[in-house]
Amino acid sequence: MSGWSEKDIPDQSGRVVVVTGANSGIGYAAARELARGGARVVLACRSEARGNEAGDRLAAEVPGAEVEFARLDLGDLASVRQFAQAFSYDRLDLLVNNAGVMALPYGTTADGFETQFGVNHLGHFALTGLLLAPLLATGGARVVTVSSTTHALANIDIDDLNSERRYRRWIAYARSKTANLLFTHELARRLAAHGSQVIAAAAHPGYAATNLQTAGPRMSGRRASERFMRLGNRFFAQSADGGALPTLYAATAPDVRPDLFVGPAFGGWRGAPGPSWRAPWTLDDRAGELLWEASERLTGVTYDALKM
What we know:
Elements: E1 16-20, H1 25-36, E2 40-45, H2 48-61, E3 66-71, H3 77-86, E4 94-97, H4 115-130, H5 132-136, E5 142-146, H6 169-193, E6 199-203, H7 212-219, H8 223-235, H9 240-252, E7 261-266, E8 270-275, H10 285-299
Parallel strand pairs: 1-2, 1-4, 2-3, 4-5, 5-6, 6-7
Antiparallel strand pairs: 7-8
Helix pairs in contact: 1-9, 3-4, 4-6, 4-10, 6-10, 7-8
């Protein structure tokens, strides 16, 4: 992986790709480079205005790009189902579960789930399950889920997945990112058990300058924290383009194996992508199974083709 960059992305011609949260940050950067490689990219975004603006910007940056917008609100399972029902392709080569929220004040999704767990994990769990048929029908398909090194702050609490007993914004975020890794681990395990060639992998951007850092402080009126985050983004973070490289590697590199976790090689902070450390609890088969069962129950989305 040494020195790997967007220039090493293999030809993507003919591939159909969905990137959630593709209107800004690492989602937009990943979508742009996949389109540059020749893929047809669906920008799955909550805001129609921002999604269409991103599509126009991408088309200007990559003349001839095959790109389209489709509305997807991961905090509303009805929206997730509508997106999947409207998906018109009989193949799906790559699903990038990128969208997310971070360290927000306590809130709930349209379905009553704690917002960070609901958007970061349950929304993507439901989306992947509802798009499972075209994924399984496509040779060499991949599911790449974006987690964070912050997952190391906390394991999931299977008895309090929605933080109803006590809410701490950073712990809830860490648990949602642990859930992303446990989902990847269990999905990879189930795919292998059924002889599928679909690869489930995960990535994290290190410290990348995006609007994710400032959204939580802004929503809670913590202006000093918002200014601090902006300064960090300006002086310490790598660019969104740099932060997208681990996602792009996991999505396209030929040597990616199931359940690989990719991040920036330089201390997990920045630089070219490489294998990333992960907390031992993200490799716990029993925890992955329990989270999977709870996620099916909460979302009503069952992966019937991968029943164990």
